[in-house]
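Hi support team,

I've been running sequence recovery on a batch of backbones for a student project. Most finish fine, but this one hangs at about 90% for roughly twenty minutes before it completes. I'm not sure whether the input is malformed or the queue is just slow. I've pasted the structure tokens below so you can try to reproduce it. Let me know if you need the job ID as well.

Thanks,
M.K.
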């Protein structure tokens, strides 16, 4: 399975909503922002390979002569998590402790995710119309397993040229074998 960032964003926003009790939306979603109440926003970024790929497996496709290569490896995801308005930093603290609980770990195991590390919680409060709006941000780094496969090669046809030599003559011929 290839890492599907959009699916992970949606599922993590639901998990974070359960942990904190506030609404979470996916960043850069063109929908309206929640009004009045505290809310959170997440954006998941695939940071690429985390170490070496575990390797590749090759298998023949049953119906034909195709050889399929499947590559398996670890990837790291960065979950940029922002909270806004009342208790912005406290809500991020709830997430950090909440995703380390047994129920959250079991939830992540089903999705082949595990927590790698956290950044420090950053206070990003901002002056909005003569009031300070509490804002906070933390980056959560997750590990996941990714598999990807492709047809490495397919034998469509083989052309064999033969030369048969006898004491009296030389016979040249061709044989073509098609995968049909």
């Amino acid at each position: 399975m290839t890492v599907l960032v959009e699916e992970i964003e949606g599922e993590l926003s639901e998990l974070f909503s359960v942990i904190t009790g506030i609404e979470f939306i996916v960043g850069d979603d063109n929908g309206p922002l929640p009004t009045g109440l505290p809310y959170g926003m997440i954006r998941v970024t695939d940071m690429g390979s985390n170490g070496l790929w575990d390797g590749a497996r090759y298998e023949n496709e049953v119906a034909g002569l195709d050889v399929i290569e499947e590559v398996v490896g670890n990837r790291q995801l960065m979950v940029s998590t922002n909270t806004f308005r009342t208790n912005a930093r406290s809500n991020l603290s709830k997430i950090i402790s909440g995703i380390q609980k047994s129920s959250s770990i079991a939830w992540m195991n089903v999705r082949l995710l595990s927590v790698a590390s956290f950044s420090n919680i950053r206070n990003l409060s901002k002056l909005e119309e003569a009031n300070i709006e509490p804002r906070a941000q933390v980056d959560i780094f997750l590990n996941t397993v990714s598999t990807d496969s492709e047809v490495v090669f397919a034998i469509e046809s083989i052309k064999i040229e033969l030369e048969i030599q006898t004491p009296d003559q030389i016979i040249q011929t061709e044989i073509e074998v098609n995968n049909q």
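--
Follow-up from support: It reproduced on our side and the slowdown came from queue contention, not your input. The chain has three helices and eleven strands. No action needed from you.
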